[in-house]
Structures are given as C-alpha cells and as structure tokens.
Amino acid sequence: xxxxxxxxxxxxxxxxxxxxxxxxxxxxxxxxxxxxxxxxxxxxxxxxxxxxxxxxxxxxxxxxxxxxxxxxxxxxxxxxxxxxxxxxxxxxxxxxxxxxxxxxxxxxxxxxxx
Length: 114
Known about the structure:
globular; two-stranded antiparallel sheet; single chain
C-alpha cells in the first residue's frame, strides 16, 4: 500500500555500515498520494528520524535528486559497506502506463547525526 515502506532486508540496517535502503510508493490509483510524496520537498540539512527497536537514528539530508530508472546506480544505492547512510527511494518523474509507470526515482540520501 502507499502507506507502507519497505526496508531492503538483505542490506544494511541503520546501525550497520553501508546504506540503509527504505522504499515505498509515492501514490497509487486507489489510495491517492502517500507520505513519500513529501520527499520532493526535503532540502539539504533537513532531518529524518528512523525507528530502530525502542530507539531511533536521526539522519541529516545531504542529497535530494531525481534519477532516471535506467541510470540508477544500484551498487551505490544498496552499498553494504562504507559510511552509514540512509537512502529513501520512491517513484518520480513522468508517469507512462505504456512504459511501466513512473520513469524515474526520487532518491534522498542522509547521513546519521551523532
């Protein structure tokens, strides 16, 4: 549903090195616009809270960018090593039903605030 987000379970968690990837739909025909539609309004320096067990990790937004699905760097998006990061991903760009839906992704990259 548009109100549910998914964490890539084979990737890094918020306390692990690498990128924590959380994705979801921007909208659906039956449910309308979902909470990830607000990602496009984020700016560098904004903060995002991610619940982890009974605690949370706070991230500061570094990058908000739209990327064509054909140009999405999957190795970087799903990095399982390196600095801890948050990658929020949703659909963006033009919607073309004949070509499978949205033609781009909106990617928000944040780093944990210690």
